[in-house]
Amino acid sequence: MNDVSTTPAVETIAAPRVNEWKRFLRVFFQRKLVIVGVAVILIWVLTAIFAPLIAPYDPNLQNLKENLQPPSSEHWVGTDNMGRDVFSRLVYGTRTALYVGFGTVIVSAIIGMILGLLAGYLGGVVNAIIMRIMDALMGFPMLILALLLAAVLGGGLQNVIIALSIATIPGYTRLMCAETLSVRENEYIMAQRAIGSKSFRTMVRHVLPNAFQPLLVLITTMIGNVILAEAGLSFIGIGIQPPGAAWGSMASAGIRDLGTLPWLCFAPSLAIAVVVFAFNMVGDGLRDALDPKLRGTL
Amino acid sequence: MNALPTACEVRPAVELLRVDNLQTEFRVEEGVVRAVNGVSYTVDEREIVGIVGESGCGKSVSQLSVMQLVRNPGRIVGGEVWFEGHNLLKYRASSPQMREIRGAKISMIFQEPMTSLNPVLTIGRQLTESLELHLGMTKKEARARAAELLDSVGIPSAQSRLDDYPHQFSGGMRQRVMIAIGVACRPKMVIADEPTTALDCTTQAQLLELMLSSIEGCQGALVLVTHNLGVVARYAHRIYIMYAGRIVEQGLCRDIFYRPRHPYTIGLLKSVPRLDEERGRRLVPIDGTPPNLIDLPPTCAFLPRCAVAGERCRLEPWPELEPIDGEGHMARCYMMEATGE
Amino acid sequence: MTTYIIRRVLWGVVVLFIVSLIVFFSLRLIPGDPVQIWAGQQMGSGGSLSEEMLDQLRAKHGLDKPVPIQYLNWVKGIFQGDLGESIRYKDDVGTILKQRLPVTLVLGLVATVLSTVLGIFFGLVAAIRRGKWIDTLVTILSYVGLCIPVFLAAFILMYIFALKLRWLPFIGFELPWNNFGKSLRQGIMPIICLAVTPLAVTARQMRSSVLEVNNMDYVRTAWSKGLRERVVVTRHVLKNSLIPVITLLGISIGIIFGGSVIVEQVFNIPGMGRMLVDAIFQRDYVIIQGGTLVIAFMIVLVNLIVDISYGWFDPRIRYE
User: Fold this and answer.
1) Residue of C146, C214, C245 to mutate when probing chain A, most A C-beta within 10 A
2) What is the ipTM of this complex?
3) What is the structure's pLDDT at B286?
4) I want to staple B164 with a disulfide (CB 3.0 to 4.6 A). Which of B168, B208, C135, C164 is the partner?
């Protein structure tokens, strides 16, 4: 990863831009599982956007007379204990996962990158303070930190996003701090400083292109992790509050009927697994395609 | 050690190794790299053979192929390697037959002393393991022998340094350790792959002398792989010049140095300083860069850089090695009449 | 060496200090104080409390003092082995932890050992048989392990082994020193669930680490000595490739503590995870504070051990 920031590597990449891009696409799509991953993500996003058109019922429409039905032509995945159509709830669940996944990553990436840039650029005490706090945050298991924050903030979509964002900031901060430090060592930035150019902006301009590739990989895998963590929170009952359709809470609600109506548990859990799998695949594909050094190691 | 004229003496030869039409290729994303493309050579007992070429000409890969140590995606696709009456390429890389030869009968000294020793094992362990394996020594015997070996390659207080790790040694010292490992089992042949490139000049000379005397001590032959003509001029009996995966010229040391016929050899000689010539001669680098080994044209691979190339070179495929004047002196060129002068 | 260890210990103390600050002050951001929340909950269940009684309670728990003083008192208590008293259970947090922690630790420890040992083994095998069926299998399984939620693993196991085959008990967990046989049978499913993700992470890291070490010059040197594959792998490859893998131990412990929150919920196990979740629902600050601090302490401790053990794996580290 360090070679990316050294000048010779930049030169070789800069010259044949078009070939690089072609090579990237070829390597990226070389693996079938990456294609599967991209397809799953596309389907997932489209389902979330067109949820009202796809879902046959209102996901929150209760019908206690028809509760706990097995799958049928009317209810493809049956109905839950409140008589709600499980398939419709699964479809609307894509929205929850989408909001949480992308929302969290956007918030935490922005805050984390800014903190990392500041820590790397200012150095000294600021760096020490920021990075020590990040170490402390990283000392927590993500789920327990999110649990604590959710306890402070309360449940609900927005609070889950805030809690997970705080829990995932350290990854970005560390990455940006390391990149910033390596660029700062670069002598021509020093030279620019000497002639008095606006160095923080110069810094940002140099750090971002270098950090872009590892950031992209981090963000992709983070979306998967965040969706997994949200599922955990909702499963415990601290995440998305009822009646909101979240896969995690659907899975935990079905546990009483696991023996007789297993799909109530398995369908939402599998949905989570498939989406997370897709992001892991794409993240790995990106890493392999962007960093030739790592290619083939996994 | 021997000075140039005596080194080129002809001596009665008992053939030890015969490599025939060796071919090794690497399948990479962009295509097939024919790193070794039909290389044949022989090494006699107690002979010092130099294999010379620029980096990437296939000289290292050819040696790794003899030992069957070529890594993925490299593959030996053809040829024969005859050693003590057996064709080694008939054996699988991991076969017991191959393992009995590696380290015991043919050993290798690699070019990077910094990375060729295992950082997490003591020097002692790295020396004793082949002694225990090939010579059946007990741990105690092997340790005593290892101390002797370290001492013989000039490492001070050898006994106590057995328990040190590679990072506690300097580059030159590590290469001494590599030499000790190389000759530990008194092999019939040692392959030294750019053994001194990573070291500074004074250490280089010392280590070469040390290596030669160590190998002489166990009556072995030496294949010296290098890009440094000065080194082979001093020590080698016979020399093979490689270019783009093939041997382009071969012969006794004096023929190569005083009557080179391939334009590449001539270029190489012009690009290095020589002690035996008048002062003030200009050093002339060879123009251009070594060719990309993927999709080589059938014509001479040196053609784009050749100063004497003629019409025939452009139209006809690369010629075979043809005998010239001296004993075993051969070159692969159409323009040898022009280069004869 | 000693200075290195002292520095690492001090470093751990700093991390714990920051953790305690974050935990303590973030919990104080919740509107209303713990006594008020507790009183509210009591009202809901029919009890009634006078303002006077609440003030008495506040004084008893030191909640009448300013927040920074409360923090100092808390920290002072920790150094005396006193993590505070739960308002709700009127019980020492230390006592509650004494009951809860062993359960989570037993399950977590077994899961850690299992995932680390198996992860190293499978990663190694996959790497040295690169491209063969075993490699494909390990790679696919580690992808699966990385993406399935802990509760899905629990559902699968429960459905098959508890509900259909009826081989294993459905819920609960007894400590092994109380009833070993029962403990073992109850422990199997939760332990597997806890181990799945760290196992996948470890196997993946091990595989790529071995593949990298395999390309090192010193491995070629080892081959050139005529050593058999088993010796090359165990003597030359293994130790070098373990260096990045042991770093993962701290992360694995974290994953396992996180997973225990869910696993203890699903299998109805009275451990730390359940305790934390219950405390959060009941807004029992003192328990949340104490619990998270203990978890952070465990993780800092494991990371400390990992840092110190580097020296054994890699003699180049000179503990400067």
Assistant:
1) C146
2) 0.88
3) 80
4) B168
